[in-house]
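User: Design a sequence. Structure:
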């Protein structure tokens, strides 16, 4: 299926910048669009981040062409490493800026912007307060910061609109106390939202992969996309 279901401008940006979708992207996008849980196991450099995010970005783009996006959180990205949260914010801004330029060139009217922000222990209090008043559409955070958000009135109000949760480097928390804590937070989040959240897990190393899928979505079926964990190498002397 690839990019055939995406908005023409979104698809054009992807092809002109990255070429054709990788295997994990082509397999993951339809699942996420249908609201299915997905566990993506693929090596570094295979496009896992955009496999998780790009169909959601396209959905937000298409909604934004129809009318203003409400000031509410749509996607929660959780990383066990604070540095990864910052990386994802930067990585997401590149396609968003590129798609924005494509929409402008096509003369398409759009409303507002798609906002991406990071919330970790290093986030200044002024930024934390600002995002409570005007939530981003995509928030990158850590398991510990998610727990703190769930315990505050403003945080719970912001999290209530979440529809999709992406857990990166999921292998780093499975089987640990930190992972048990995160699993509890995910159940609390789903209860708060009052709906089944689409759960997407990402990692290059996941063993045994079936148990990782059960950790990600303990109460529902989870599609496993296993593209291995080694890159193809071209060596020459």
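Assistant: Done.
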């Amino acid at each position: 299926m690839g990019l055939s279901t995406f908005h023409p401008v979104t698809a054009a940006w992807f092809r002109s910048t990255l070429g054709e979708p990788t295997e994990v992207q082509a397999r993951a996008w339809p699942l996420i669009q249908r609201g299915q849980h997905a566990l993506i196991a693929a090596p570094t450099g295979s496009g896992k981040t955009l496999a998780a995010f790009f169909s959601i970005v396209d959905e937000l783009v298409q909604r934004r062409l129809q009318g203003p996006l409400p000031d509410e959180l749509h996607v929660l990205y959780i990383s066990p490493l604070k540095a990864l949260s910052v990386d994802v914010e930067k990585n997401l801004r590149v396609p968003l800026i590129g798609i924005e330029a494509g929409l402008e060139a096509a003369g398409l009217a759009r409303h507002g912007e798609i906002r991406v922000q990071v919330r970790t222990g290093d986030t200044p209090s002024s930024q934390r307060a600002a995002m409570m008043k005007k939530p981003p559409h995509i928030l990158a955070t850590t398991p510990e910061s998610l727990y703190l958000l769930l315990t505050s009135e403003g945080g719970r109000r912001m999290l209530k609109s979440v529809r999709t949760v992406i857990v990166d480097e999921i292998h780093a928390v499975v089987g640990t106390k930190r992972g048990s804590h995160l699993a509890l937070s995910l159940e609390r989040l789903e209860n708060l939202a009052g709906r089944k959240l689409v759960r997407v897990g990402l990692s290059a190393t996941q063993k045994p992969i079936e148990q990782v899928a059960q950790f990600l979505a303990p109460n529902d079926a989870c599609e496993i996309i296993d593209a291995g964990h080694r890159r193809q190498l071209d060596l020459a002397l």
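The chain has a mean pLDDT of 90. Strands lie at 37-41, 75-78, 116-119, 138-141, 164-167, 198-203, 222-226.
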